[in-house]
Specification:
Blueprint: E1 2-7, E2 10-16, E3 22-27, H1 38-43, E4 48-53, H2 69-82, E5 89-94, H3 96-107, E6 112-118, E7 123-124, E8 141-142, H4 145-152, H5 156-159, E9 164-165, E10 172-173, H6 178-187, E11 190-191, H7 193-196, E12 203-208, H8 216-225, E13 229-234, H9 240-243, H10 245-257
Parallel strand pairs: 3-4, 3-5, 5-6, 6-12, 12-13
Antiparallel strand pairs: 1-2, 2-4, 7-11, 8-10, 9-10
Helix pairs in contact: 2-3
């Protein structure tokens, strides 16, 4: 069920898939939204209650004045407070969400009992040549849904499910503002090793064999250097949660069942 809260004069929208299981905060990747975890919530039903926000500037959540790490983490804490989840919870994140998840664990260790990092690295150097260059020149709104899909080009399959009608039937919008995403990507830049190593709760790194975001050697070093961290390697590229959802669900479920 979809809900919302106000934080810093912005609306933060989130999905609470419900159930009597233990809470699992799930943070989606860039240019995505909480609904991306619908399959995971179903796979974990009965054991885990998946709570998946549309992070700032994504989906039904309002745009934000900035997309720095501190803001993403502050939003996550505001959601946990809003839900009355004072005891530590398991946190899962993919890509951008994975970076936010381990920053949350480092900044607020008392709020995170376990961590699942899906293909989020610690040495982030976004380049103009990366696939997200399509964001430059991409319109935020258009009179028809088809125009936005055409404008997205090779990324059409990624953005099409999240396109939203504008109020009053005046057109359609992207599930994110392209400039916000470029700003968010740039704010990920840097060496995050110290933050990754700053928490010590049980953790799982899920890595894809052909990932452009997290090379296998780096993923293995993340596991070796951080105590109580396990590793799952899946065949695929950075988009493995979408190309091999069953594999991701199995790896997550196995890790969570071991806690």
């Amino acid at each position: 069920m979809r809900h919302e809260l106000k934080t810093d004069d912005r609306t933060l929208s989130y999905l609470d898939f419900g159930g009597a299981g233990r809470p699992l905060l799930a943070l989606h990747g860039g240019m995505s939204e909480g609904a991306a975890f619908t399959g995971l919530a179903e796979a974990l039903r009965g054991q885990w209650r998946v709570i998946a926000p549309d992070q700032r500037g994504h989906g039904d959540s309002d745009r934000a004045p900035d997309y720095r790490r501190e803001g993403y983490v502050r939003d996550a804490v505001a959601l946990l407070d809003h839900l009355g989840l004072d005891s530590p919870v398991a946190v899962l994140g993919y890509s951008l969400g994975g970076l936010n998840a381990y920053h949350l664990a480092a900044a607020h260790p008392g709020r995170v009992s376990a961590l699942v990092n899906i293909d989020a690295g610690v040495e982030v150097r976004p380049a103009e040549s990366d696939w997200f260059g399509f964001l430059r020149g991409l319109p935020y709104t258009a009179p028809t849904r088809e125009e936005l899909i055409d404008a997205a080009g090779a990324a059409a399959e990624l953005v099409a499910p999240g396109l939203r009608p504008l109020p009053g039937g005046t057109g359609w919008r992207m599930p994110f503002h392209p400039q916000d995403m470029l700003d968010s990507i740039e704010e990920c830049r840097g060496d995050h090793w110290d933050t990754w190593l700053a928490s010590d709760c049980p953790a799982l790194v899920i890595n894809a064999t052909r990932s452009h975001a997290l090379p296998r050697a780096t993923a293995e070093a993340m596991v070796d250097r951080r105590p109580r961290t396990s590793y799952a390697l899946l065949d695929g590229d950075h988009f493995v949660p979408f190309t091999d959802p069953d594999g991701v669900h199995r790896a997550v479920a196995q890790f969570l069942s071991s806690l």
